[in-house]
Amino acid sequence: MNRDAEKRFFQNPEKLMQLYAVGRMITSELDSDRLFDVVVEHANELVGTERCSIFVIDTKKQVLKPFASRDLRFGFTLPRDQGVAGWVFTQQTALVVNDAYADERFDRNADLVSGFHTRNILCTPLISRSR
Q1: Given this model, what pLDDT does residue 60 score?
Q2: Is 126 exposed, middle or buried (0-12, 13-18, 19+ CB in 10 A)?
Q3: What whole-number distance in Å separates Cα of residue 87 and Cα of residue 82?
Q4: What is the pLDDT of residues 3-23, one digit of tens each?
Q5: Is 89 in contact with 127 (CB distance < 8 Å)?
Q6: Number of H helices, E strands in the chain
Q7: In a 3-state reduction of DSSP, which class is residue 74?
């Protein structure tokens, strides 16, 4: 998010109230599986996205797999160093891709599996305190 978009977002009382409500839900949810479903659901609404997925690393197979997602489920994996998610995972930095199909890091397999056509991507690493 660029500075202007960030400023507009944080000056919008409705968005701030949505963010506050999501924060309350996150802190009150004890079931971690349900927690990430709540995060995906509200991230779509809050940021105005069409899709949202949270990937986790499978350390045995060295792949990223969807943990919570609206459209990617069982069986889909991505090598930990491929695709936009793989790049973000290995670089440990957020990335905005304005034209997914023009970006060499984009892996089209997710679209083939889901039937969705990705136009742009906002991807950020989620790093737990324990690792």
Answers
A1: 93
A2: exposed
A3: 6
A4: 666 566 667 777 677 766 766
A5: no
A6: 5, 5
A7: coil
Within 8 A by CB and 6+ apart from 13, the residues are: none
Which tokens belong to 128?
């737990």
Q: Read off the amino acid at residue 44.
A: N
| Residues contacting 63, CB < 8 A, separation 6+ | 57, 77, 78, 79, 80
More confident residue, 84 or 25: 84
Spacing of C-alpha 59 from chain mean position: 19
Q: Which distant-in-sequence residues (6+ apart) come within 8 Å of 3 by Cβ?
A: none
pTM: 0.71
**7 burial class (0-12, 13-18, 19+ CB within 10 angstroms)?**
exposed
Calculated CA dihedral for residues 30, 34, 35, 36, nearest 10 degrees? 150
CA distance 68 to 49: 15
Name the DSSP class of 98.
S
Contact assessment for residue 43 and residue 52, using Cβ atoms and an 8 Å cutoff? yes
Place of tokens 């309350």: 24
